[in-house]
Design a protein that fits this description.
The protein has 18 helices and 13 strands. The chain is an alpha+beta fold and 478 residues long. It folds into three domains: 106 residues, Potassium Channel Kv1.1, Chain A (2-Layer Sandwich), CATH 3.30.710.10; 126 residues, Serine Threonine Protein Phosphatase 5, Tetratricopeptide repeat, CATH 1.25.40.420; 143 residues, Sandwich (Apoptosis, Tumor Necrosis Factor Receptor Associated Protein 2, Chain A), CATH 2.60.210.
């Protein structure tokens, strides 16, 4: 401090604040040693209230932030306290230095939240709404407030299924790509893939970027009614966004035409303006699709490479590929379900069905943990061990002796959660292949005993089991 400069009493108190907090913490630790009558007197909420009053009234402020936005003459002035800003942000430390005032240029969506952002420095908490997540995350990133940045990221990852009028997951994905946040990016991408039918019918669909569209279309874990539904949504997206020809070619060639029945293929060839205008991009794929439907997959595999994405079904919700299963009071007892699926997506196999049996157990125990019913083991002990079990789901074919040469079956289980307005969204996806009957790690962290469990909707477990054939190449015919 310069000689002759008298520190304002409020500033002197703020300068001593870290020392006071450390001293109080040390005193508390020493006071709690060895005295059974020791108690904690906690007035931290009062301290936080006084700090907020400092911001609200501008008492003893030693720095001024002037917030401006482009294309506007309006200036927002906030009287602050340099100590509290620099404790959490080295950017503010560099900006303020020996200055008493600094002008900051912010976009309108950030400027309107700047006072809320500064309030966080005084109380360590902040209220968030969906439309505020990106601007607050941008402010936390710009001024390197790491705790707030992480908090907003966690909020975004846990509120993907929250209700919003215009949608928010697509914009969060694009923001995550721009900031290089790969964790948030992957969380958004999974949510969009697992709830694509809902996204395609929302206002968000037309805001999907070219890169995001291509990324989605390349995935086999898309959850939707049918491939025809996807084609119709892609056509709408192209008509609304008018992408360049190279993008149109990429998205059209990403549609899995063999997964569309022949009658519907004929229909879109005659009725789709997009396909009629650009059919030359996919003529070979359409021809391949009709070949696929005209012969057995086993015969087709002798001449064509069938172990590729074009012949892999996505997670279709239609009854041909699985069954919805709503289990009421899932913690009560074991349940079973039988359902049928089509042998394959080929029209050649459309009349052939496979029957599947599903068994759900809420408290299955491995053999090593199962109770031994004997006189030496009390019934209470046996009951306690049963409570140690975890949910189990087994899906097996009820038809033995069938020849499945050249094909295996992937079993996928979707677990739904509910958000506002009664809509059910997929939050958890489990997949196993034919060689395994039990779904690995199924609801391993779920507590089905609690009605408030995130896995339950009105005390019911909402599942959708999908069984899809995966073709494999065999010895080629000469």
């Amino acid at each position: 401090m310069e000689r002759g400069h008298r520190l304002h009493p409020g500033r002197r108190w703020l300068t001593l604040l870290p020392w006071l907090l450390l001293t109080a913490h040390a005193a508390h630790k020493s006071d709690t040693g060895g005295d059974a009558a020791t108690t904690l007197i906690n007035h931290s909420s009062m301290v936080i209230q006084r700090l907020q009053e400092l911001l609200q009234n501008g008492n003893a402020s030693d720095s001024t932030l002037r917030i401006r936005t482009s294309n506007s003459d309006e200036v927002k002035v906030i009287h602050t306290h340099q100590l509290l800003l620099t404790l959490q942000s080295d950017v503010f430390e560099g900006l303020l230095g020996n200055k008493s005032a600094v002008t900051l240029q912010e976009p309108p969506e950030c400027a309107i939240l700047f006072e809320k952002f500064i309030r966080y420095f005084y109380c360590g908490e902040i209220t968030l709404q969906l439309n505020q997540a990106i601007p607050l995350h941008r402010l936390a990133s710009k001024y390197r407030v790491s705790a707030l940045q992480k908090g907003v990221t966690d909020y975004m990852k846990t509120h993907l299924a929250s209700e919003s009028s215009q949608g928010h997951v697509v914009s969060w994905y694009h923001y995550a790509v721009g900031t290089g946040d790969e964790t948030l990016q992957e969380s958004c991408l999974k949510f969009l893939a697992w709830n694509l039918s809902t996204v395609m019918s929302s206002n968000e669909w037309v805001t999907v970027s070219d890169d995001l569209m291509i990324s989605l279309l390349q995935r086999s874990d898309l959850v939707l009614q049918s491939e025809l539904e996807l084609f119709a949504a892609v056509e709408e997206w192209v008509n609304r966004n008018n992408p360049n020809v190279s993008i149109i070619e990429k998205v059209l060639r990403s549609i899995r035409y063999p997964m569309i029945p022949p009658s519907q293929l004929f229909q879109i060839q005659k009725q789709s303006a997009l396909l009629m205008s650009h059919q030359h991009f996919v003529q070979d794929l359409l021809f391949q699709a009709f070949q696929f439907h005209s012969a057995s997959p086993l015969h087709l595999a002798k001449y064509f490479e069938v172990n590729c994405s074009m012949f892999i079904p996505r997670n279709y919700l239609s009854s041909s590929w699985g069954s919805q299963w709503i289990i009421n009071n899932p913690a009560r007892d074991d349940r079973s379900l039988s359902f049928q699926t089509q042998l394959g997506p080929s029209n050649y196999d459309s009349s052939k069905k496979i029957t599947w049996n599903a068994l759900f157990s809420p408290r299955w125990l491995p053999v090593s943990l199962r109770p031994v019913y004997s006189e030496s083991v009390s019934s209470g002990s046996q009951s306690n061990r049963l409570e140690e079990g975890r949910p189990r789901l087994v899906v097996t074919s009820a038809m033995s002796g069938l020849d499945f040469a050249g094909v295996t079956f992937q079993k996928t289980v979707l677990v739904g959660v509910r958000r506002q307005q009664g809509k059910v969204f997929v939050k958890h996806v489990y997949s196993v292949h034919q060689s395994t009957d039990e779904v690995s790690d199924f609801l391993v962290h779920a507590d089905l005993q609690k009605r408030t469990s995130e896995y339950l909707i009105d005390n019911s477990l909402h599942l959708h089991i999908i069984v899809k054939p995966i073709y494999h190449s065999i010895i080629k015919a000469k």
